[in-house]
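Review this today:
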Amino acid sequence: MSTMKAVRIHQYGPSDVLAFEDSPRPQPDAGVVLVRVRASSVNPIDWKIRAGYLKQWMPIPMPFVPGRDVSGIVEAVGPGVSRFKKGDEVFGLVNGAYAEFVAAREEELARKPRGITHAQAAAIPLAALTAWQALFDKAQLQAGQTVLVHGAAGGVGSFAVQFAKVKGARVIATASQSNQAFVKELGADQAIDYAKERFEEAVRGVDVVFDTIGGETQQRSYAVLRRGGILVSVAAPPSADEAAKHGVRAEFLATQPDATQLGQIAQLVEAGEVKPQVGAVMSLADVRRAHQMSETGHMRGKIVLSVA
């Protein structure tokens, strides 16, 4: 087969620029694994790229296949691939996952966690790696410390709450009123309804702020940190001047593929210590509606795209 079904965009724009159409099927070159996609998922970066919000920093060649998360089955491997063989179940952080097949570098993939579905596995890679790298690589979160997680009911935030609890940290979570019970079930020790209570009036002296919101939320977060604490944002680069004014550190995270970290996350999932949160499962052909849902910013967990 030389073609496959994929979602492509030919120009920047609203969700109706997403086209479900025939596309060239990738080939497994040297060091590359060809994965038959069983599921992908929608991340905010997908629709931000599609809308052209990031074109100044991330220009893309057209036509473009979106999608970073994949869970599927190895269809073929290129020369030099040693970790995987045809038939292996894998998941990972790749490029072009809104498709029936995707070509991935070997180091972008790990073995899919046992005991969960492909839909659940597809909810993991970008969101979980983002939370992991923010908390452990950037913030160096330790047992006994306190972390404030903004947007705790979302895809990234829900993993951050769980990872922090596994580490032995105290977790404070901001979420809407309808998600208060949900974030506590994830492990949050304290949940704050951001619509009813200003978190900076309820929280003081935290070691880490994990910002998935940006804007005013980020600006107000410096005041809740202890001196020497750290704010890590995945929403917008924080102000170094503002951080210095409060005697804290501030870092921006651009998530990177990491097969070793994915393997560690898979072990936590298999042990039942961490659970991927799937908010909705839709077909790949229904990608326009999936993007529209994601753009509301009020999804609990991840929107998964199932590939039959």
In short: Residues 93 and 125 are 5 Å apart (CA to CA). The chain has a mean pLDDT of 96. The chain has two domains: 3-124+276-306, 127-252. The chain is about 30% helix and 30% strand.
